Amino acid sequence: MGARAVLLALLLALSAQGRRFLAADAAVGVNWGTLSSHRVPPSVVVDLMRANRIGKVKLFDADPTVLRALPGSGIQVMVGITNDALAVIAGSAAAADAWVAQNVSRYVGRGGVDIRYIAVGNEPFLTSYQGQFQSYVIPAMMNIQQSLVRANLANYVKLVVPCNADAYQSASVPSQGVFRVELTQIMTQLAAFLSSSGAPFVVNIYPFLSLYQSSDFPQDYAFFEGSTHPVVDGPNTYYNAFDGNFDTLVSALSKIGYGQLPIAIGEVGWPTDGASSANLTAARAFNQGLINRVMNNKGTPLRPGVPPADVYLFSLFDEEQKSILPGNFERHWGIFSFDGQAKYPLNLGLGNPVLKNAKEVPYLPSRWCIANPAQNLDSVANHLKLACSLADCTRLYYGGSCNGIGENGNVSYAFNSYYQQQKQDAKSCNFDGLGMITYLDPSMDDCHFLVGIDDSRSSAVSSCGCGACCMVWFLFFWVFMYLRMMGFG
């Protein structure tokens, strides 16, 4: 049976649920990323989310160390299939069965993990990927859907595809929104699938990036307090970039016949460091403004009174191992710092007026590595380069909160970042005698010198993004395939 025929059969099987527009109240959740060498134990993270009444979490893979901490938490979970796994799953129903068995079926059930969504890829249509994953998305969705049917989970676990906002575009105003030409057919297939299964179209929207990437972008248009540069689109006027972007997607969906499809926001937020426009004040203003609009069911000009189906803030924590190719701010999106401490007052609209901090965080001892004041630092350049190539020094650069602490301060900050990443190994503070360990906190003003986390209690199995669980899954897959070939499957 060809791919189109299989898709048609699936849509017919799902059509009993009918095409519908979900107008339920929105819920605020978070993205939980794990690209950090200072990982808070998953059990502490789950307690943190529960203390803040966060009822939805979006993961970027299906990390077993994370999923094992979620049973019985009452938190609804979105797990993810990484882009690199799409080709294998698209080409093999057995691989899809193996993935569902390994990452979904084993965790769900009474008292288990409340897995509601599977994200098939993460921004797989991103322009910079140059179509690398594009042809695999729909076949992978069909195979995973059939696997969910066989596992009796299809009525409960829904499939979505988180898309970057560059999947659609507009010449000038939201009403002219269209999908990129090369994506029109695949987006029509995706929208048909989502509509029939009752799942939302998931999109990631970042007004911060619009402001960061263009000096001509009106700063007040990125926030929610109104703008002196509104966009007039016929009878509609847009006073903020989020609404304009959202309605551009609504227009694009309308042009392919799915203008009533529910839309969820997979990622949205504002960084707190690493750029001149990334700071605590701006992050709080943006996130609180967004949450207030969502909770007030304000909607947008094309969907008045109807908020997004769900909104997942990006991100729960800072992740100091993220790539900084887009900018130094990439490591500072968290509403909490890496150790689960709230960065600023934020009312998530979930019952707590401010964020509550993580408790029982297993910090390393209170000691730091700094530049030895008795040594001449003329030969420090190579050591500084080494430290910052392996640890995070993004706060030191232009726009960072530690940018003005002086040369000795810069060296100390870099040395300490490396020292903490190395779990306070005394040898990592040597730097040919230029470093020294101190028990006095060297933090100054808004520049905080971190103390790392003792993650020895956590499982040695890392996230799929780091390769370990992917290897486990592939081993599982090939054992599964061998048993099938031998007649045991």
Structure description:
It is a single chain. It is built from 13 helices and 17 strands. Strand 1, helix 2 (42-51) and strand 2 (56-59) form a beta-alpha-beta unit. Strands 5-4-3-2-1-15-12-9-6 form a 9-stranded parallel β-sheet. Strands 7-8 form a two-stranded antiparallel sheet. It has a two-stranded antiparallel sheet with strand order 10-11. It has 2 domains: 3-331, TIM Barrel; 368-438, no CATH class. The chain has helices at residues 3-14, 42-51, 64-67, 86-90, 93-105, 137-150, 184-197, 207-213, 241-255, 280-295, 381-390, 406-421, 468-485; strands spanning 27-32, 56-59, 76-81, 114-120, 158-160, 163-164, 168-169, 178-179, 201-204, 231-233, 236-238, 263-268, 299-300, 303-304, 310-313, 368-371, 435-438.
- Low-pLDDT residue intervals, each spanning 5 or more residues: 3-23, 459-474, 476-489
Structural category is alpha/beta
How many E strands? Answer: 17
Distance between the termini: 22 Å
Largest sheet: 9 strands, parallel
Largest sheet, spatial ordering of strands: 5-4-3-2-1-15-12-9-6
The CATH superfamily name of the largest domain is Glycosidases
Strand content: 5-15%
Stated plainly, the CATH topology of the largest domain is called TIM Barrel
DSSP helix fraction: 25-40%
Instruction: Report Rg.
Output: 24 Å
The best one-word shape is globular
CATH architecture of the largest domain: Alpha-Beta Barrel
